[in-house]
Amino acid sequence: MTFSFRPTHEDPYLAGLVDRLRDYLDGELADYERDRGITRESRLTRADLEPVWRRSRELGFYGIHLPEEYGGQALSNVRLAALKEEIGACGRVLGHSVLGDMGGPLRAGDILKHATQHQLTTYLLPLVRGERACCFSLTEAEAGSDVRSMTTTAVKDGDGYRLTGHKVFSSAGPFADFSIVVARTAGTEDSFSAFLVDLDSPGCSVVEGATPMSGEHIESDIILSDCRVPAANLLGEEGQGLKIALGRVTSNRLLHCPTAIGAARRALQLTRDRALTRTAAGGRPLMALQSIQHKLADMATDLYAARSMTYAALVALDSGADVRAEAFMCKLFVAESAFRILDQAVQIHGKDGLTQGNEIEYLFRKMRMFRVLTGTSEIQRNGIAKSLVTLV
After folding, report:
1. Closest CA to 63 of 74, 75, 51, 72
2. Could you tell me the pTM of the whole model?
3. What is the rounded CA–CA span in Å between residue 297 and residue 289?
4. Which 8-state DSSP code applies to residue 96?
5. pLDDT tens, 146-159?
6. Whose C-alpha in 64, 120, 148, 360 is 20 to 30 A from the C-alpha of 303?
7. In whole angstroms, what is the distance from residue 110 CA to residue 224 CA?
8. C-alpha 65 chain-centroid distance
């Protein structure tokens, strides 16, 4: 794998997909955002998003990872990762909606295989078609990394359940139709179940969530107060909630990395371009200064290492290998490397890198979040250390 700001792919099929995706992101989608005045701070609505879902579906990108029976192309993890990297590198505000990561098929995760025919027909197939949107409600104010400390409960009630609790950081909540809610089974210490909850149900309230440091308005709190959910909306069996919610943990952990790699790639290119065109004190370009050259060299090396190890792990995953330790390592290294790259990018951009509205400033905040989201760096180190104990 060679180093490039616009990677090429030896796989002809993947190369074609990447080219078509770049054309859409840089052309039609960029025009759409500009025409509607969409920025990273915009409060996105269904009216903003549904045209992107439909168009991305028409182009074959929305849910492209799914099996062919659901309208996808059954992409390998490596191919999906390459597309996610391009999303991260494109700079588009609505890039997260092209593959269905924000409220769409990627957000729903691996629940299709747990769904009944009723659940497929009513919830998941409309989701795949871009007709409905979902959010995922697992995290609580006092239950982040330790999800087993959640207090949301599900009480059996005749032929259904009554859910009570308060979920936070439900991404895509502001424009979702339903949520995948994980709750503790009442009367148990360690049994959790997953439910499909219509967000307009009596006893369910969707309120504006905390605004993350990225400044995006994409989070909601889901408040459940004796909210009745029919038994038909139980995903899988009782007690399978965490297994369903955290299913494919290893692949999901790995597949979060390419988006961050793409963001770091864009930051490095923007910083390189600035160093070539910005004049330093004394009238010389920034790139003529050895101190700037060395910063860029370190940034490029971090990016190459992060990208190489991630795709190596994805190749092994596609071959059927057990890559749990490698997934922990990749999430740790990518998160820390991407943040180092953005920290240096801010430094080289100077006051512009500190100014809200500048893309580098936004990416810095976004990469700082990645060191916490989807498992903190400390959690990744715990997993790596545990794997070493049994390593042959």
Report:
1. 72
2. 0.93
3. 12
4. G
5. 888 999 999 999 99
6. 64
7. 24
8. 14
